[in-house]
Design brief:
The chain contains 10 helices and no strands. It is mostly helical. The protein has 2 domains: about 5-85, no CATH class; about 95-155, no CATH class.
Length: about 200
């Protein structure tokens, strides 16, 4: 796979067109003219493609969550905002929530962080150190969303990160040393050597 193909994979969209159309129709039903104004420059086909791109990676449960949130909102969302509604309140942290928690973890390693957020944080640590939070935030968001999509597709559930236990150091402790009994035959020989030495010294 060459470099161009790798980039093409990053732009791959698999969200069903029919579902994207259903979401758009629901938004139009609720907000009609407001939504039309927001996307006045798009043809129907372009808008559907845009919806597929923005909603890519969301699950049916995510979409249901977004629709339920939209039913209680008075104002018309743009598609990225609708996506954030789909992700909020679910089992998984959103990318922005994960970033905020990651920054809390950086200042206090005892604060809670998910395994997914911790992995994404380690991926951008060099950017964080070299270029600062703003650049690291952009990279973190993309990496986290990719990890999140894969985790959902694999049917995983969110897990909190647990610090690995430090390996117990192997050291020498004089107080804990246990003696091994000397075999009787060797003990007898040693007694003979000691007796011989004493007699020699006496001579």
């Amino acid at each position: 796979m060459n470099e161009i193909q790798l980039f093409e994979n990053a732009f791959a969209v698999t969200f069903p067109v029919e579902v994207a159309e259903m979401v758009l129709n629901r938004i139009v039903d609720l907000h009609g003219e407001d939504f039309t104004k927001k996307y006045a420059g798009y043809s129907d086909e372009e808008l559907t493609q845009l919806a597929c791109t923005v909603l890519n990676g969301l699950t049916p449960a995510d979409i249901a969550r977004g629709l339920a949130r939209m039913n209680s909102e008075e104002w018309c969302p743009r598609l990225p905002k609708f996506r954030s509604w789909c992700e909020q309140g679910g089992d998984w942290w959103t990318s922005d929530m994960a970033w905020a928690k990651a920054m809390m973890f950086e200042s206090d390693p005892n604060s809670k962080i998910t395994t997914l957020a911790k992995c994404a944080l380690e991926e951008v640590r060099h950017i964080l150190n070299a270029e600062g939070q703003k650049s690291a935030h952009f990279a973190f968001r993309d990496i986290y969303q990719d990890y999140l999509r894969r985790a959902k597709e694999a049917g995983r559930v969110q897990e909190m990160w647990v610090k690995p236990k430090a390996a117990k150091a192997i050291g020498f402790d004089e107080g804990n040393r246990k003696g091994v009994p000397c075999p009787p035959e060797l003990l007898q020989k040693l007694k003979g050597v000691n007796a011989f030495t004493r007699n020699g010294d006496a001579a």
